C-alpha cells in the first residue's frame, strides 16, 4: 500500500528510474519551471553517486527546519515521497508559509507523480494523506494552484475538497481545509 514517507536513500534506484521517465517526457529542459524540472537541472549530477544522493536526501529533509538559513524568497518546506515499499511513485512539498509569489503561482502544496504511475489515483491519495500533515504544521487552509488547462490536477484538488477562489493569469487558485472534522 503506498504511503507518504520522508525522503530516503532506500528508494534511490526507483527514484532514478522515475527521474529518467520525467526526462523522457521533456522535463528539466530550460523553461520547465516545475519542481521536478528545477531539481533535474540542479541535482541530477549529484544523484549519480550514492554519496551525492544521500546528500540530496539530507538536504530535502533539512528544508523543513525553520531555523536553517535559506535564500530570499524560500520558505521552510516538508518534502514527502509517495512510496510503495521502496518504489518511488511521486512526491509532494508542503511549504510552511506563503511568499507573495507562492500566493500567486505556487501555493502551500506542490506534487508530482512519475509518468508510469499516473492515472491510478496516486495524486489524489497522496494529497489526501498530506492534508493532516499540513494541519500538524499549523496550516489551515492550504492554497494549491495549478495551470488552468491541467484537468488532471484540477480533478485531484477538487476530489480533496478544493474550492476555487479565482484564476490569476494561467493559474487556478484553490483553498482546501486541512481539518477532517
UniProtKB/TrEMBL annotation:
Endpoints of the signal sequence: none
UniProt cross-references to Gene3D superfamilies, sorted A to Z: 3.40.630.30
Protein name per the record: GNAT family N-acetyltransferase
Molecular function terms from GO: acyltransferase activity, transferring groups other than amino-acyl groups
Domain N-acetyltransferase: 38-181
Amino acid at each position: 500500500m503506498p504511503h507518504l514517507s520522508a525522503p530516503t536513500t532506500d528508494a534511490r534506484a526507483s527514484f532514478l528510474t522515475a527521474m529518467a521517465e520525467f526526462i523522457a517526457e521533456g522535463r528539466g529542459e530550460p523553461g520547465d519551471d516545475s519542481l521536478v524540472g528545477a531539481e533535474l537541472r540542479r541535482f541530477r549530477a549529484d544523484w549519480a553517486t550514492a554519496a551525492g544522493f544521500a546528500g540530496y536526501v539530507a538536504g530535502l529533509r533539512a528544508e523543513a527546519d525553520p531555523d536553517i538559513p535559506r535564500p530570499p524568497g524560500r520558505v521552510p518546506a516538508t518534502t514527502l515521497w509517495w512510496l510503495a515499499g521502496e518504489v518511488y511513485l511521486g512526491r509532494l512539498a508542503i511549504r510552511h508559509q506563503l511568499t507573495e509569489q507562492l500566493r500567486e503561482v505556487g501555493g502551500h502544496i506542490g506534487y508530482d507523480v512519475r509518468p508510469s504511475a499516473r492515472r491510478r489515483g496516486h495524486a489524489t491519495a497522496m494529497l489526501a494523506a498530506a492534508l493532516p500533515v499540513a494541519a500538524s504544521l499549523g496550516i489551515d487552509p492550504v492554497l494549491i494552484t495549478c495551470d488552468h488547462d491541467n484537468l488532471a490536477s484540477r480533478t485531484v484538488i477538487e476530489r480533496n475538497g478544493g474550492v476555487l477562489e479565482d484564476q490569476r493569469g494561467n493559474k487556478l487558485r484553490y483553498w482546501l481545509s486541512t481539518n477532517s472534522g
